[in-house]
Every structure is written in C-alpha cells, then in structure tokens.
Amino acid sequence: MKNTDSTKVDTVRLQNMSRAFIGSASLFAAIDLELFTCVAEGDNTVGKFAVRAGITEVNSDRLMTMCAASGLLHWHSDHFENEEDVQRFLVKGEKSYAAAWLTFTRPAWDNWGKLTEKLANPEPATVIGSYETMTVEAARRYHEATASVGFGSGRRFAKQVDLSSATKMMDLGGGSGAYSIVAAQHYPGLKAVVFDLPPVVEITKEFISKHRVEEQVSTQAGDFTRDDFPADCDLAIMASNLPQYNSQIIGQVIGKAFDALLPGGEMHLIGEMLDDDRAGPLDAAIWGLYETMSNSTGMTHTRADCVSYFRQAGFTDIQVHEFIPGILVRVCGKK
Ligand SMILES: C[S@@+](CC[C@H](N)C(=O)[O-])C[C@H]1O[C@@H](n2cnc3c(N)ncnc32)[C@H](O)[C@@H]1O
Predict the structure, then answer these.
(1) Is 60's C-beta closer than 6 angstroms to any atom of ligand 1?
(2) Which of 7, 28, 201, 265 has its CA 20 to 30 A from that of 161?
(3) Domain 12-94's class?
C-alpha cells in the first residue's frame, strides 16, 4: 500500500498486531476472574476488585488498566464501568452471557503458538477434521458455546426471512438446533429436522425438549458429506460450518440439498464468507486458518464461490445478503 499522506510509515500497527495475543489473554483472565460481573455489581475500583478476585492490588490495577485500554471498560469519575457489549454479553447470570462462545477458541491456544509447524505439516489433511472423534460430552460443551450466540442468529433469520409458506425445513449441521427451534416458535405450522453427527443430535434433543418444541422439531443423525438428507422438505438451511470443508464438498452438499428439496423449495447458506476482493472480513479468514489446527481440508470461501455452488447445483434467483456484518453472509436460491 502506498503512503499518500505526509506522515511517515511507522511500526505502530505492526507492533500492536504482534502483541494482540496479550489482548486475548487479558480478556480470558478477566472472564475467569469475573471482572465484568464484579464491575456490574459495584466492585468497580482497583481496590474492590482486588478483594473480590483475591488478587493483589497491583495485579488488579494491571488487568483493569489493560481492559480499559482495550475498550472493554471505561473510567467514569471515580470508578470503572463496562462498555455496552461487555455489560450485555460478559456479565455472569445474564441470559445473554456469551462467555462460552467467546472462549470457544481458547483450548487451541497452545497450538496457535505452533502455527508455523502446523502449516508445514506434511501429513495429508482429513475431510472432516476434528468432528470424527467427537463424543457426546464434547458435543455438549461445543453446543453450550454455539447456543450462546446461535439463538440470537436464529432470531435474526426468522425475522429476516419470511418462512410463512414453508412446511418442512432441513437444518444441515444444525448443532443445538437454534435456527430450527426459533423458526418453529415463530411459525407454528413449520416442521424442522436438525441433521447433524450422531453425538451432536443427542445434545440437539436436549435443546428441543428444553424449548418444548418436540411436536415440530426432530433430529436425524448423519454425516452430510455421506448420508441421505431428510425427505419432503421445501426449505434447507446450513449455518456456520462453511469453512470446515473445501469447495468440492460444499458444492456436493449444496447439490445434494437441491436434489432432496421439493420443487419450489429454497435453500439458505449462512456462512463466514470472504468478500470477493479477498480483503476481509477477518473473521472469515480466521475460521479458514482455524482448520489448520485439526489438519482438515476446510478453507475460506468467497461470496462468489458460494453463488457458484448454488448455480452449479441448479438453484435460480440466487441472492447474497449481509446477515451479521463482518461475521456471517447469507446466500439463498430457489429450486
Ligand atoms: C458451528 S456449528 C453450527 C451449528 C448451527 N448451525 C448454528 O449455527 O448454531 C457447526 C455444526 O456443523 C456440524 N457438522 C460439521 N460437519 C458435519 C457433517 N459432516 N455432517 C453433519 N453435521 C456436521 C457440526 O457437528 C456442528 O454441529
């Protein structure tokens, strides 16, 4: 990039990037020590938080200063306050508490320190990555995390897309069933089948029963790269698993969904898609790179790639919509 203004190029941006992991570490420590919950409950000074967390005042000062400099807290006259998103998503006990999702990538922490070696791994990548070995317990932890944001996305989907004429939906890789459960609650005439790997659907059943939608939402255990899809559906959705697979597999899955849908049916693919100029968003690039950790064949797909999978499958009236700006894009098409 050419520097057009009169100021000289400096190292500030690169320095900040080289130490960005310290920002993640501080966020995780603040979550562990329930800093934001303490602030919300009035333990909002260095001294009060030190007592509540059982740490020294100097460490309390260091952590609170870092959180304020990172834009998680701000100083108000004589005490700290949570920023709006922190107050909403990181105060324990709130319904919107999303720490499980915000610490979801933390277990890979040590491996990210070995990214160079991981990228140079000569072993052939496997199709399905870490999912092959998933247990029911691991699926429960995984979907406790995805559900903490998935139900919000499900509500957004049910508001953004008119499903009033749909009768039966297949939710491919539906996980907690968030999209299906919310859609069922919005549309009492709609039935949904959450299709996911065998250990995962055991957890989906728990979410279905917790939300009392057993009459409308069922499950089907399977691997969408190999197994048949639910029959008689006029709606197919697939959300938040796009970078876990390469073009060939995503193309095949969308082709299979097209074949399984009833004539007149529609499909919505909601995923972490890269802009067509490949300049971002960062989140799409992160999830593509994340697949290096499990040595899967997964990769980042652009919006244009996804449109071409729909076209090749036979869908018409293909459209691209922002879903959660910077995070998720929705591509849809009709059969
Ligand atoms: C990040 S979760 C998203 C869950 C849900 N769609 C949502 O947005 O809340 C990805 C899901 O895709 C499922 N998945 C990945 N590969 C799959 C496969 N080959 N067959 C079926 N499900 C799969 C995973 O088990 C997981 O539940």
Answers:
(1) no
(2) 201
(3) mainly alpha
Question: Which residue's CA is minimally distant from atom 27 of ligand 1?
Answer: 175
Q: What is the mean pLDDT of residues 274-293?
A: 96
- Residue 126: C-alpha distances to residues 93, 123, 131, 272, 295 (Å): 39, 9, 10, 21, 6
CA 200 – ligand 1 centroid, Å = 8
- Read off the pLDDT band of 165 (50, 70, 90): very high
Cα–Cα distance for residue pair 247/130, rounded to 1 Å:
18
pLDDT in tens, 92-108: 999 999 999 999 999 99
- For residues 4 and 173, the model is more confident at 173
Task: Look at residue 76 in the predicted model and tell me its pLDDT.
Answer: 96
- Residues 71/83, Cβ–Cβ less than 8 Å: yes
Average pLDDT, the chain: 95
According to CATH, what is the number of the domain 115-334?
3.40.50.150
Ligand 1 pocket member 204 (CB < 6 A)? no
Ligand 1 atom 11: the closest Cα is on which residue? Answer: 173
Mutating to test ligand 1, I would choose from 176, 197, 252 the residue with most ligand atoms within 8 A of its C-beta, which is 197
Domain-by-domain residue ranges, the chain? 12-94, 115-334
Check whether 4 has a pLDDT greater than 80: no
Q: Which residue type occupies 318? A: I
Q: Is 244 in the pocket of ligand 1 (CB under 6 A)?
A: yes
Provide the token pair at 159.
């508001």
> What letter does residue 72 receive in the DSSP assignment?
S
> Quick check: pTM over 0.90?
yes
